[in-house]
Design a protein that fits this description.
About 75% of the residues lie in helices and about 5% in strands. The protein is mostly helical. A two-stranded parallel ribbon has the order 1-2.
């Protein structure tokens, strides 16, 4: 009876190892997909197209303020005290408004980047899931992988799927 119990215990301990032998596992480097996928490039272009006009407008305002400061330092002695103070006030107000506009721009950009990256992550997860199902994978890991052999890395295959979604 004891021999039978040892056999049962041994088979119970070996069962997970035997089951794992049939398991098909891979991992995906999510940051590589976020950087190299055509969808990520499209998001970058979309954000660049959306925010470039505002960025250029802010740069133009900064140049105008810089020019005003240079003019004041160059011609300030020729102005009356009231004119000089008015120009200084105009520059100070302009800097304040520019700083506010720049902060607003950065906030808007961060919000839009977050929205677009969220959408992109969903697309990537869908592609990974599609790849895993079509490839017969039981498990795909992507975050927290400390070590995996190159044979488990399916990032390039998923990237190929993202580049050619019709597959």
């Amino acid at each position: 009876m004891r021999l039978w119990a040892l056999g049962l215990l041994g088979s119970l301990l070996l069962a997970p190892a035997l089951a794992a032998a049939d398991l098909k596992v891979g991992y995906v480097n999510a940051s590589a997909l976020l950087q190299a996928s055509p969808q990520a490039e499209a998001v970058q272009k979309k954000l660049r197209d959306e925010f470039t006009p505002r960025r250029q407008q802010l740069e133009s305002r900064a140049k105008r303020l810089e020019q005003m400061e240079q003019d004041l330092s160059k011609n300030g002695l020729m102005l009356s005290e009231e004119q000089r103070k008015a120009k200084e006030r105009e520059i100070i107000d302009g800097r304040r408004e520019l700083k506010h506009a720049q902060d607003e721009f950065q906030d808007d950009l961060r919000i839009r980047q977050s929205e677009e990256v969220g959408k992109l992550r969903e697309q990537l997860l869908t592609a990974v899931e599609k790849f895993a199902k079509s490839g017969g994978y039981d498990l795909i890991l992507y975050e927290g992988v400390i070590y995996a052999s190159d044979g488990l890395n399916v990032t390039d295959q998923v990237l190929a799927l993202l580049k050619n979604p019709a597959r």
